[in-house]
Design brief:
Distance between the termini: 5 Å
CATH topology of the largest domain: Jelly Rolls
Helix content: 10-25%
């Protein structure tokens, strides 16, 4: 497949939002691969990262935002078991929905094969890809600073 577009970025702790990339497909394609990957080491906290400061912050956030009193052991459990970076991808072509991937993966493809009429689960098959492709990176939660990501679009 021919690489059509590639971009890299960094998001930091606490970022919640959307980043949309617009790609003009200068030629028609019958196959399209939208590949998104982010740094797997930034997805969850390791035991040594559950510092007293992070535990105290978690206790304070639970109280302030949810009126929930938790002890340090429960905060540590939340940090190591429940907290994770969640970044998903959504694609449209000429403002028509192509697909959205909400899986808990740090490396994912949205693959469309117009020749065989197939597409990755969560995506809509189509025969041709031409025009303006928009890929939106949906960050629901970023838990670590310096979380690097890369988006690549390839076609055939």
């Amino acid at each position: 497949m021919k690489e059509v577009y590639r971009v890299e970025g960094i998001v930091n702790r606490g970022f919640v939002g959307q980043i949309t990339y617009m790609v003009n497909l200068e030629e028609p394609f019958s196959k399209l691969d939208i590949h998104f990957v982010f740094d797997a080491s930034k997805r969850k906290f390791s035991p040594d990262e559950a510092t007293p400061e992070l535990i105290a912050d978690t206790v304070a956030v639970c109280k302030k935002n949810y009126d929930l009193d938790i002890d340090e052991n429960r905060a540590r459990g939340i940090i190591l078991g429940d907290m994770k970076t969640e970044i998903h991808t959504l694609a449209t072509l000429n403002d028509e929905f192509l697909g959205c991937i909400h899986r808990q993966m740090t490396d994912r493809h949205m693959f469309f094969d117009g020749v065989n009429g197939t597409a990755t689960e969560g995506c809509i098959p189509r025969e041709r890809f031409e025009g303006v492709l928009k890929v939106t990176v949906l960050a629901f939660n970023v838990i670590k600073d310096g979380t690097r990501y890369e988006l690549t679009v390839s076609g055939e």
